Amino acid sequence: MFVSTSSEMARNWEAYLQDEIKKSNGGQSQKEVETIRDFLKGVVSNTEAATQLASGFTTKDSTYHVWSLVGQISSRYPEHHEALLRLVAAIHQLPDVADQSGQVTLQLSDHSDMIGAVWGDLTENRNWETYYDNHVNSIAFLAKVSNLGIPSLNLTDDCAQDFCMAFEQTPRDEASFKQEDIQALNINIPLVAQWVLNAGELIISLNGKIEPWPPNQQSLWAGPAEFCIARWEFWKSRAAWVQDVKSVHPKTRELARVVTEAMEKAEEAYYG
Fold first, then answer.
1. Which InterPro entries does this UniProt record tie to the protein (predicted)?
2. Distance between CA atoms of 50 and 86, rounded to whole angstroms?
3. What is the H or E stretch that residue 195 is in?
4. Number of domains the chain is built from
5. N or C of the chain: less Cβ packing under 10 Å?
6. Which residue, 92, 114, 136, sits at the end of a domain?
7. Rounded CA gap, 259 and 161, in Å?
């Protein structure tokens, strides 16, 4: 629901992976792409694919390519999110392995923060619509992966920042809006929607355990610097307010309604 479907999806995912195979020029990287391709085609199970991928994890940095590839596929092809989640879970269920020296334990979560990193992949001459759609897809997947409990994923940097940008760094009333404020809401509300829809119960349960941006001169939030239920309630009130802001995109208003309802649902689960 409300996961973006960019023009990238018009390009077959198998063609994308075939291009990645050509770029790899053989070796371990090619084997990894082929394994993920076979998994997505249903040729091998998630457990078999995870075992095959882990066989190439011989150094701490050797997990980088796999996590980067999972992140890129999830950003381009959201129809594969559920399958990729099964693969990620299977990898993390495997026992950690020793590196080539046999002395240092290799954590399979090393570099899993590459998931969701598409937003930082700044390339020239990119198509902005596709680039942003990919980022929305990436945040949706990152939120889903967060529910798997992978410790290296940083909700402080990813989740809290999007909430703060949408609800704390924009003016209190529409009359004070500048163009950049409208853009901030149009850009960040869809991201917040993915966080709440896919990890709302997890986020509210982290009361006191994540650190949003501390209040500053531009911030509408004047309470404690840490994340708390009161701050969550403030964010929800701002989402409800955005539903009636005429200057933002109609989809932004609709997503603000979705955010409000999803936050209320997360509260019901949190309070029992």
1. OpdG, Oxopyrrolidines_Biosynth-assoc
2. 10
3. helix 179-205
4. 2
5. C
6. 114
7. 16
Alpha helices in 11-80 (DSSP H): 13-24, 27-40, 46-54, 64-76
- 170 shares its domain with 236: yes
Q: In angstroms, rounded to a whole number, what is the distance separating the alpha carbons of residues 75 and 177?
A: 31
Here the tokens at position 151 are: 């410790």
Instruction: Tell whether 17 and 97 lie within a shared domain.
Output: yes
User: In this structure, are 105 and 161 located in the same domain?
Assistant: no
Do 178 and 86 belong together in one domain? Answer: no
CA distance 253 to 93: 40
Considering only CA atoms, which of 233, 226, 239 is closest in space to residue 192? Answer: 239
The single residue listed with the structure tokens 């960019």 is 6
Residue with tokens 């309470």: 223
> Across the 272 residues of the chain, what is the mean pLDDT of every consecutive 10-residue run?
47 89 87 96 97 88 88 93 95 81 71 62 54 88 84 65 92 94 94 95 83 75 88 97 96 98 97 90
Element (H, E) at 271: helix 250-271
What pLDDT was estimated at residue 119? 46
Length of the chain: 272
Q: Assess if residue 138 is contained within a domain.
A: no
Structure tokens that stand for 231 in this block: 């701050």
